[in-house]
Design goal:
CATH class of the largest domain: Mainly Alpha
Mean pLDDT: 96
Radius of gyration: 22 Å
Bound molecules: acetyl coenzyme *A
Strand order of the largest sheet: 1-2-3
CATH superfamily of the largest domain: Citrate Synthase, domain 1
Number of strands: 3
Low-confidence stretches: none
Structural class: mainly alpha
Number of helices: 16
CATH topology of the largest domain: Citrate Synthase, domain 1
Number of domains: 2
Distance between the termini: 26 Å
Order of helices and strands: EEEHHHHHHHHHHHHHHHH
CATH architecture of the largest domain: Orthogonal Bundle
Helix content: 55-70%
Largest sheet: 3 strands, antiparallel
Oligomer: single chain
Amino acid sequence: MSDKKPSGLQDVVVAQSSICYIDGQRGQLVYRGYDIDDLAENASFEEVAWLLWNGNLPTQSELSGLQQDLAAAMHFPKHLLELLKELPFDANPMRVLSIATAALGTLDPDADDLSPEANRKKAINLTAQLPLITTAWHHVRNGTEIPQPKADKSLAYNFLWMLNGAPPDDYAVRTFDAVLILHADHELNASTFSARVTAATLSDLHSAVTSAICTLKGPLHGGANEAVMQMLQEIGEVENVGRYMEKLRADGKKVMGFGHRVYKAKDPRAKILEKMSEELGKRAGDTKWFEMTRAVEEIFQPQVAAKGIYPNVDFYSASAYQVMGIPRDLFTPIFACSRVVGWTAHLLEQYANNRLFRPSSDYIGETGRKYTPLASR
Ligand code: ACO
């Protein structure tokens, strides 16, 4: 018998990877050798996708080729639309996204082809399709018309266009593009690990991405951005923050959007999102959500600094999305629309050098029991 606390695989190295590096003490995040601040400031999401999949930034002709491939994949299969229309309109969008991703596997003739070429193509297709599904679901459940994607525009532009049916302004597109870059990869986080575990059985890429979506959904992982927004909506006004935080503390509840298994400093993505959230609020003339978020940080941070708990990526993304007019239950699907790039980069790496994941457990159950007939129990 063991009294060891379950490890949650903390600090256990389960793979070698050349995709993403995190320095949790210094609060540094690096994709393929490039610092996240540099990429968020200067790159496009499409460039970052190419970088994560291929290891280097694309040349102009490689980028143009990728943009053409993404545009070609931006169409919504008729069968899928019919399937979405059959689902209950109050279904959780992450559940819808996982159903639709699994269904896309049934519509792809190469679904079970695990060659690098086929998997690369599927990675591009899913990167174009997840934003389509997310925004189409929004219209299906509201009974509104689905705007057609624009082949000459970026994924960021298309997401905002297809969600709202109105051309987004340049600042919104640039901000959303940076949001997608910030969420694109994060080493062996729970959803990426679950994607790799699925792929390591030599199951297919659609199945592995479906696993990842289901894992991202939880409030301890990607679902935290929705939980942060729920908290802000419950707080309601800046002047209520202190009282709300006191109650949370008295009830011994966690503050969503705080804490991270790896970072023991402020998450570098949170720093960038904090600035974006403030600027978006100012531009929209609605700084309430940002101010509430900052007030929560100012009260809570000193209480937990000694434990190395700081705001994570989900903390300031909530107020940023809110000001962009994005419905709360689409926050986590947006995370998936970006992270699909990281998941598939890890899947390409996994398939290229595969070994089944099969950890062990420390058995703490009964031993030596003998079967008792039903009548004697
Ligand atoms: N609020 C209050 N206390 C916290 C928080 C929090 N958000 N996070 C951790 N702690 C405390 C725990 O209560 C625990 O305290 P104790 O040692 O006194 O018991 C200690 O810090 C360690 O926490 P664990 O939950 O054991 O740490 P773990 O590494 O397993 O958890 C996690 C990391 C799940 C992210 C956690 O910090 C958490 O639940 N945060 C809130 C949910 C959240 O924001 N998730 C998004 C993470 S980022 C992402 O996945 C995209």
